[in-house]
């Protein structure tokens, strides 16, 4: 097992770049994880890390988990607390990091299942929270169009491991994909803050259905709206005009499955 004490080490530099650069992640088809829960969750979800880095203190705290992770990792190294601080995206690093290969995105939605579609979400925390809720509730997958990177460290932390398991479909043209889904028998609903739209609680979502959640500031794009089967809304009391995207997504998915 290696021991790394220099911040200038090439492996440390490569790992750090995966945390900060979307381009580096997709060029290498790898992403980086931080923290005991995420790193061990990856191992328990079938990932075999290319790299596993951890401090001596972390090893002493989680000996069984580290031994299990080391057994399936291609390269392992004990790092200093200073290096852990350099790599960390958090204020209080736990001292464990993993680099994993990306698994292929799902190719298409499957008839008979329910999906959440995200149109232009840019906040990694919102994206991660929706993915986490989708897995928890039993949504079959997430369709992502013009969104921030699902492998962004903030999105991964917000998803709490769910993005390692929930099928994700990358759309290059959501309006076209919605039209294709409708041809396959899907009902596709645009969630909008519009009092004239149908109350979401009145919808009997069919087996093949998709709910679309829009961008945090601008909502669903006009092209995507035009492609959807129906507009639905979450009726609100008081003076609030809209909901946070992740909260709207959670309510929509709950209604889809209830």
Tell me, briefly, the overall form: elongated
Structural class: alpha/beta
Overall residue-averaged pLDDT value: 96
Unreliable segments (pLDDT under 50, ≥5 consecutive)? none
The N- and C-terminal alpha carbons lie at a distance of 50 Å
Main sheet: which strands, in order across? 8-7-6-11-9-12-10
Helical amount? 25-40%
Strand content: 15-25%
Sequence of secondary-structure elements: EHHEHEHHEHEEHEHEHEEEHEH
Radius of gyration: 20 Å
> Sheet bearing the most strands, described?
7 strands, parallel
Give the number of helices.
Answer: 11
How many β-strand stretches? Answer: 12
Task: Walk me through this protein's architecture.
The protein is an alpha/beta fold and 258 residues long. 39% of the residues lie in helices and 21% in strands. It contains eleven helices and twelve strands. It has helices at residues 10-20, 22-28, 36-44, 56-61, 63-72, 81-87, 124-137, 153-159, 174-183, 222-227, 245-257, and strands at residues 2-4, 30-34, 51-54, 76-79, 96-101, 114-119, 141-145, 168-171, 187-191, 198-199, 209-214, 230-233. The protein has a seven-stranded parallel β-sheet with strand order 8-7-6-11-9-12-10, with helices on both faces. The chain has a five-stranded mixed β-sheet with strand order 1-4-3-5-2, with helices on both faces. Helix 7 links the parallel strand 6 and strand 7 (141-145). Helix 7 runs parallel beside helix 8 (153-159) and helix 7 (124-137) packs parallel to helix 11 (245-257). The chain is elongated and about 60 Å long. The termini are far apart. The model has no long low-confidence stretch (mean pLDDT 96).
């Amino acid at each position: 097992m290696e021991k790394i004490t220099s911040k200038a080490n090439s492996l440390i530099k490569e790992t750090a770049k995966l945390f900060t650069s979307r381009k580096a992640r997709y060029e290498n088809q790898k992403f980086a994880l931080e923290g005991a829960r995420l790193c061990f969750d990856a191992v328990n979800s079938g990932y075999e890390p290319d790299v596993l880095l951890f401090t001596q203190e972390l090893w002493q705290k989680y000996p069984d988990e580290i031994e299990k992770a080391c057994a399936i990792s291609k390269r392992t190294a004990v790092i200093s607390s200073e290096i852990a601080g350099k790599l960390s995206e958090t204020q209080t690093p736990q001292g464990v990091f993993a680099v994993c290969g990306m698994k292929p995105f799902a190719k298409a939605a499957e008839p008979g299942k329910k999906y959440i579609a995200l149109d232009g979400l840019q906040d990694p925390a919102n994206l991660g929270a929706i993915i986490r809720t989708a897995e928890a509730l039993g949504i079959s997958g997430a369709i992502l169009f013009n969104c921030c990177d699902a492998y962004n460290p903030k999105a991964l932390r917000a998803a709490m491991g769910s993005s390692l398991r929930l099928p994700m479909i990358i759309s290059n043209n959501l309006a076209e994909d919605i039209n294709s889904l409708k041809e396959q028998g899907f009902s596709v609903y645009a969630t909008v803050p519009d009092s004239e739209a149908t109350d979401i609680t009145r919808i009997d979502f069919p087996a093949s259905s998709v709910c679309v959640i829009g961008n945090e500031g601008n909502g669903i794009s006009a092209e995507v709206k035009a492609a959807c089967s129906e507009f639905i809304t979450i009726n609100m009391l008081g003076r609030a005009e809209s909901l946070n995207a992740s909260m709207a997504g959670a309510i929509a998915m709950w209604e889809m499955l209830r």
